[in-house]
């Protein structure tokens, strides 16, 4: 079996790219021939308002290589990337770890942020740590959302990384029969660290990406994160982030008390950094996630999640058993405070968080992908 993977850019440090690498690696172990196809030139630094031009250049670079790509049994891409191949007979699979429509819908303008956090946002702008996004740049994102939905409706099969994403696609008019729920997974090295006793002095931990633009920062809930950090000023706090925003990183290092920050660590080193803090609190303040790899990664090291109901969280988080889902900053503060004061509860929830994370091993995603590919190529062989 030969599968062509279509990418819109080389290593960007996003969840989609980690998942693509993981899928390719595990499929190769099963004997699948995988080849990655990237744009011939880097388009990573294209301004948001030139997104349309970026897409044209990207699709043209794929069409130039169509003879080579069409030799594969299956063409798989992330959301809109396999668009040029919908007109051909080779089956097309579109993988949705999230949707651009979801990004737009769930990311408010600055004047519509929660009252508790809006002051923080304006302070960050005033002190030069972030820049507000021009509202006109949302138009190219809406165009991408339209293309994503066009591809999903016409692809041979669609992969949704969570029930949340599956519902988004169905609401957009995609036939539910062609949507296959295949949860994301985390790399095997997350499960190789020994399980230590819970830490006596728990930390509040953030693990995730902090983008360089205001849109992504609001999406990831930066204002919520800083608000919670400030409330627990006497509690040690740890931030592990992928970011190119040097001004924001400098601001966080200098302005947040009892706080340490590591930026852009190699991902395979993170388990060793997190392992000693088992029983600490993992705060995920995102307004939107399609899945949330950070949730599973943190849980794999015995961190206890306090998370808004995004991504896969509603499917796997059971309040008071392996973490907490919250609907407001006040509730997040309440749950964090309770966990900080109750070591016995932290021990129980940490054990269950570890168990939950093990359900998302790489072997599972490989098995589900092979099942889907066989279904596409030999429908009669799958009952």
Main attributes of the structure:
383 residues, alpha/beta, Rossmann fold, 6-stranded parallel β-sheet, 12 strands, 14% strand, globular
Describe what you observe in this structure.
Helix content is 43%, strand content 14%. The chain is an alpha/beta fold. The protein has two domains: 2-185 and 362-381, 3-Layer(aba) Sandwich (Rossmann fold); 188-359, 3-Layer(aba) Sandwich (Rossmann fold), CATH 3.40.50. The strands form two sheets. A six-stranded parallel beta sheet has the order 2-1-3-4-5-6, with helices on both faces. Strands 9-8-7-10-11-12 form a six-stranded parallel beta sheet. Helix 1 crosses helix 16 (362-377), helix 5 (115-126) packs across helix 9 (222-231) and helix 12 packs across helix 15 (343-357). The longest helix has 17 residues, at 138-154.
Broad CATH class of the largest domain = Alpha Beta
Report Rg. Answer: 21 Å
Largest sheet: 6 strands, parallel
Estimate percent helicity: 40-55%
Q: Biggest sheet, strands in spatial order?
A: 2-1-3-4-5-6
Class inferred from helices and paired strands: alpha/beta
Query: What is the straight-line distance between the termini?
Result: 20 Å
The number of helical elements comes to 16
Order of helices and strands: EHEHHEEHHHEHEEHHEHEHEHEHEHHH
Structurally, the number of domains stands at 2
Number of strands: 12
Average predicted local confidence, pLDDT = 90
Overview in brief:
This protein is α/β, with parallel strands linked by helices. 43% of the residues lie in helices and 14% in strands. Strand 8, helix 10 and strand 9 form a beta-alpha-beta unit.
């Amino acid at each position: 079996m030969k599968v062509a993977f279509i990418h819109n850019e080389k290593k960007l440090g996003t969840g989609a790219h980690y998942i693509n690498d993981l899928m390719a690696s595990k499929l190769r172990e099963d004997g699948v021939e995988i080849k990655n196809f990237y744009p011939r030139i880097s388009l990573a630094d294209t301004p948001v308002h030139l997104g349309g031009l970026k897409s044209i250049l990207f699709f043209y670079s794929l069409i130039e290589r169509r003879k080579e790509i069409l030799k594969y049994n299956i063409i798989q891409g992330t959301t809109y990337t396999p668009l040029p191949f919908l007109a051909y007979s080779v089956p097309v699979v579109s993988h949705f770890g999230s949707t651009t429509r979801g990004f737009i819908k769930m990311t408010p303008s600055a004047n519509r942020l929660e009252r508790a956090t809006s002051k923080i946002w304006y302070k960050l702008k005033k002190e030069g740590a972030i820049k507000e996004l021009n509202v006109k740049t949302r138009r190219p994102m809406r165009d991408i959302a339209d293309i994503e939905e066009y591809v999903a409706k016409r692809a041979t099969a669609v992969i949704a990384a969570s029930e949340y994403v599956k519902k988004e696609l169905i609401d957009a008019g995609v036939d539910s029969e062609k949507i296959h729920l295949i949860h994301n997974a985390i790399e095997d090295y997350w499960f190789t660290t020994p399980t230590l006793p819970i830490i006596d002095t728990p930390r509040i931990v953030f693990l995730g990406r902090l983008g360089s633009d205001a849109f992504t920062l609001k999406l990831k809930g930066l204002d919520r994160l800083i608000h919670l950090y400030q409330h627990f000023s006497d509690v040690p706090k740890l931030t592990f982030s992928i970011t190119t925003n040097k001004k924001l990183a400098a601001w966080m290092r200098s302005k947040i008390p009892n706080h340490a920050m590591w930026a852009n660590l190699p991902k395979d080193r993170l388990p060793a950094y997190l392992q000693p803090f088992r029983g600490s609190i993992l705060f995920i303040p995102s307004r939107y996630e399609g899945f949330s790899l950070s949730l599973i990664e943190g849980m794999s090291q015995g961190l206890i999640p306090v998370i808004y109901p995004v991504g896969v969280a509603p499917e796997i988080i059971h309040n008071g058993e392996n973490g907490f889902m919250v609907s407001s900053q006040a509730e997040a503060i309440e749950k964090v405070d309770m966990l900080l004061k109750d070591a016995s509860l932290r021990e129980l929830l940490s054990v269950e968080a570890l168990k939950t994370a093990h359900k998302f091993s790489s072997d599972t995603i490989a098995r589900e992908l092979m099942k889907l590919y066989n279904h596409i190529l030999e429908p009669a062989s799958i009952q």
